[in-house]
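task queued by scheduler; priority normal; single chain, no ligands, no partner chains; default sampling; output format set to C-alpha cells
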Amino acid sequence: MRAVILSLSKYLCSSIEGSFNMETITKINTTEKLINAFESSKNSLFGDLELREQAIESFSKQGIPNRKHEEYKYVNVELLLKRDFAISTATTVTAEQMANVQMLKDAFVVVIENGNFSKNLSSIASLPKGINIQNIAEATGNAAFQKHYAKYADVNNDAFIAMNTAFTSGGVFIHIEKNTVIEKPIHILHVSSAAENAIINPRNLMVVEENAQAKIVESFATVASAGKVFNNALTEIFIGANANLQHYKIQDENEAGMLLNTTQAYQEKQSVFSTNNFTLSGLFVRNNLNIVLDDEFIETHLNGLYLTRGNQVVDNHTLVDHRKPNCNSNELYKGIIEDKSAATFNGKIFVRKDAQKTNAFQSNKNILLSDDGTINTKPQLEIYADDVKCSHGTSTGKLDEDKIFYLRARGLSETSAKKLLMHAFASEVVENIKIEELRDYVEEKITGRFA
C-alpha cells in the first residue's frame, strides 16, 4: 500500500511539474514570438529605431501582464494573447464592410485601417488653415511631431505602451496650430478586420497649441472578421496654454474585437480638457487614461459610460496627476452590468506637494442587472498637499424598487419602467456630449440596448 502511495505521489509531482513547464514554455513562446517579429521587421518601420529598440527591451523585461500584476489583476491579458496571435500585416477592409461603419457626416474623417492611415478612405481634402492631419509614418520630419512624439507615454510604465512604441506602423498625427479654432469635429475611425488572430498597434499624436480649440472623436469598430483582433491603441495628447480640447471615444468592437486603449494627455497653463468615453460592446475592453496637469489654473473633465453583457470584460483605469496649484478635475464614470459580464473601475488622483488649492472630485456609480455580474471598483486619492478639496465615492446596486413601483403606478409596465430608469441613469454622462450628431448616435445605441 505504501508503495502505491509513493508511486501516486511521484506521478502527481511529475504532472504538476510538467504542467508548470508547459505554462512557462507558453509564456516564453508568446514573448519570444513578439520579439522575433520585431527583429524581422524593425528595419522597415518608420521613425527612430533606437527608441523602438529601447521599447522592445522594456517590453521583454515587463512581460505580458497577468493577474499577478497589480494594475491587471482583474483580467489575465496574458491568457488572451495565448490564442496564437501574431503582429498584423497590412490588410484591407472592403467597401462592403465600411458601409456598415458609422461615420460622422459633418466632420473631417480620418480612417485608420487595421492600424494604418488610409488616405483613400479618409475625407480631409479641404482642411482649413491652421490644421495639419497626416499619416504619422510620414510626419517624422515635422518640428511639432519631433517635439512631442513619445514624450508623454513612457515605455517603462506599461508593457502595452512599450509594445505599441516598438511595433506601430501607422496612425495619425493631428496638429492644431496656435490661435486656431476648428469648429468642425475631427473623427478618427479605427476599423479592424483580420483573417486570423492578429495584434494591431495604431499610434496617434494630437498637438493642440496655445489658444487653439478643437473637437476630436475616436471610434473603434471591428467589422466582419474571421479571426480575433487585439487592438493595442495608443494616443498621446498635448494641450497647450489656454487651449481647449473636447475628446470623445466610442468603443463598439462587437464580439470579435479586443481593445486595449491607452490615452496619455499633458496639459499646460489655463487649458481645458474634456474626455468622454463610451464602451458599447467588445469581448474585452481596457482603457488606460492618464492625464498630467503641469501648470496652474488647469481644468479637466473625465466622463465614462460602460454597458456590459454576455461574457464581456471592461476595465477602466484612470490617473489624474495634479502637479501644480489652483487646478480642478472632475470625474464621473457609470456602468450597467448584465448577464455574466465583468467591469472594473480603478481611478487614481495624485495631488503633489506643490499642488495647493487643488479641487479634485471623483465618482463611480454602477447598476448590476444580474446576480452573475461582477463589478470591481477602487477609487483612490493620494494627497501630499494640505490646502485642497478632494473627494471620491462609489456606489453599486440594483434598480431602485421604489422608483419602479412609482412608475408602474402611473401606467408603465415593469419592463418599460426599468428601461426608463436605466436610460435616465446613463443620460447624466451622455449629456456631456457637445456634438449633436454624436450625442444622437450614442442615445440611439443606448435605446437599442435597452429595447
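post-processing summary
- The longest strand covers residues 229-239.
- The two ends are 65 Å apart (CA to CA).
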